[in-house]
Design goal:
With 340 residues, the chain is an alpha/beta fold. It has a domain at 6-223: Spore Coat Polysaccharide Biosynthesis Protein SpsA, Chain A, CATH 3.90.550. It has helices at residues 16-28, 48-55, 69-78, 100-109, 180-185, 198-208, 234-251, 254-277, 281-297, 321-328, 333-336; strands at residues 6-12, 35-41, 60-63, 85-90, 93-95, 113-122, 137-140, 145-147, 150-151, 154-155, 167-168, 175-179, 212-223, 316-317. The strands form 3 sheets. Strands 1, 2, 3, 4, 5, 6, 11, 12 and 13 form a 9-stranded mixed beta sheet that branches. Strands 8-7-14 form a 3-stranded mixed beta sheet, with no helix packed on it. A hairpin with a 2-residue loop joins strand 9 (150-151) and strand 10 (154-155). Helix 7 (234-251) runs antiparallel to helix 8 (254-277), helix 7 (234-251) packs parallel to helix 9 and helix 8 packs antiparallel against helix 9. The protein is globular and about 50 Å long.
Length: 340
């Protein structure tokens, strides 16, 4: 019986210096005999393309003619690929040795698995979780994402406290393992998102299709984070707040959609007040712009074919993450799930 095939697809945009650091480790630590590494370049204007062509002529390189964001870049890069599994990998991430086999074992254990996330550790501080995914993604009923190992800005050290495999709500796009059939059933990423939250939307839609999302603590990646867009950049605030509303609008049933979006906007107003206290007026402007864009364009968005209440899905906190974090000091996953 032949081994399952895996395509490791690295999306790059103007990160030549990071490719120089991370790509050698991706190659060295991905010695599974039936995998292929593909670089998809999102119309970079630095020397990324020439670097890959010159230094790694045996790697497959797909060069796009325009920057279509994280969502569009992966959709184009994966179009027509026939591997059994895809790994969506950020250019600023690298794996530990032996990372792939535990993920393939998870598929055997859970036939309904659609996507899976390895443990994601800080590249620069290797005993600490990394913001973008940590040990697996969750969400509250108002659309605020969080992780085992990271809630808002509170990022924990990895002490083995989350070394258990769970059904989760979302797998991080920094290093996402996904079945090709699940990717195709969901029609890939939604390009209306451009970047940020698109992998959460994808995992939501996968759950609506009957797939499950899992974390795999036996597989580890190290991620720099913010290589393309820093957390301090107001543009990132705009995308996160806009795309959160878009995600709720697309995937919630009509019976609760308006109420939930109104509640989310109230919480966004509290976030704007927090930015005011922090002396970050540019971020307040971006929240307002995000709401304006959403209100103007929401009717143009593609609605999921089978939306249902988020509370019926796995990996959902049936409380307000914002209230628990800021009022009651629940700043870790274990604060919320004490009896796990």
């Amino acid at each position: 019986m032949s081994l399952p095939s895996v395509d490791i697809v690295i999306l790059n945009y103007n990160t030549k210096s990071i490719l120089e650091q991370c790509l050698p480790q991706v190659i060295a630590n991905s010695q599974y005999p039936n995998c292929k590494i593909i670089i998809v370049d999102n119309a970079s204007t630095d020397d990324s393309v020439q670097f890959v062509k010159t230094t790694y002529p045996n790697l497959e390189l797909v060069v796009l003619d325009s920057n279509t964001g994280f969502a569009g870049g992966y959709n184009r890069g994966l179009k027509g690929r026939t591997a059994d599994y895809f790994v969506l990998l950020n250019s600023d991430a690298e794996p530990e040795k032996g990372w792939m086999e535990p993920l393939l074992e998870m598929v055997k254990m859970y036939p309904n698995l659609g996507a899976c996330q390895p443990k994601i550790i800080d590249y620069f501080n290797r005993n600490k979780f990394e913001y973008a995914g940590a040990a697996g993604g969750y969400i509250d009923e108002f659309g605020y994402p969080f992780c085992m190992g990271r809630i808002f800005g509170n990022v924990e050290f990895d002490k083995g406290q989350y070394n258990h495999s769970n059904e989760i709500f979302w797998a991080s796009g920094a290093a996402m393992f996904i079945k090709r059939e699940a990717w195709e059933m969901a029609n890939g990423l939604d390009e209306d998102f451009f970047a940020h939250m698109e992998e959460i939307d994808l995992c939501w839609r996968l759950q609506l299709l009957g797939y499950k999302i899992y974390n795999c603590h036996q597989s580890t990646f190290y991620h720099m984070g913010g290589a393309t867009l820093s957390n301090q950049n107001p543009r990132k605030t705009y995308l996160n707040f806009r795309n959160s509303l878009l995600m709720l609008y697309k995937n919630l049933p009509e019976s609760i959609k308006s109420k939930r979006i109104f509640q989310r906007k109230v919480f966004d107003g509290l976030a704007a007040f927090l930015f005011l206290i922090q002396g970050k007026p540019k971020h307040i402007v971006q929240i307002l712009k995000a709401h304006q864009y959403f209100d103007k364009h929401k009717k143009n968005f593609q609605i999921s074919s089978n939306p249902r209440d988020i509370q019926t899905l796995s990996g959902v906190l049936k409380n307000s993450l914002v209230m628990g974090y800021f009022l009651y000091g629940k700043k870790t996953w274990n604060n919320w799930y004490k009896n796990h």
